[in-house]
Structures are given as C-alpha cells and as structure tokens.
Amino acid sequence: MSQLRDVVEITAKSLVDNPNGVNVVEIEGEKTIVIELRVDKADIGKVIGKQGRIARALRTILSAMGRKTNKRVVLEILE
Questions:
Q1: In which band, very low, low, confident or very high, does the pLDDT at 29 lie, cut at 50, 70 and 90?
Q2: I need a surface site. Which of 19, 21, 27, 68 has the fewest CB within 10 A?
C-alpha cells in the first residue's frame, strides 16, 4: 500500500460512523495518481465537510505528497 492511500483511508475511517464502509482504490498513471474514496451514503457529508473544507484539506495534503514524485494527485469522493 502506498502512503497516499494510507493517509486517505486512515483519515476517512476516523471521520465516518461506519469505518467498514470505507474503500480506497489507487489508480496510478504516467503523470497522475487518482485516489478513489468510497463511503456509505450516510457518511459522505462527514468526509466532504462543511463547504467542502475536509475534502479540500485532504486534497491539499495529497497534492503536497505527490510533489515528491512529481505526479499530480486527484481525490475523487464517490458514493
């Protein structure tokens, strides 16, 4: 498992009511890494946060981590 996937998974599991419903998939391309985060419908608001603050903070952290490998990191939050 990569560090990017670990950060998203640990953070999401600590935020939601149903940590068993958290699923993180990492898709690595040539210049981009896509992290897909799936949570239960009831928990999606907790992962996004008020006005998207939690999602934005997660994307900022992932972006900074991706700069080490010179790759763009995209976080997709799915139902």
A1: very high
A2: 68
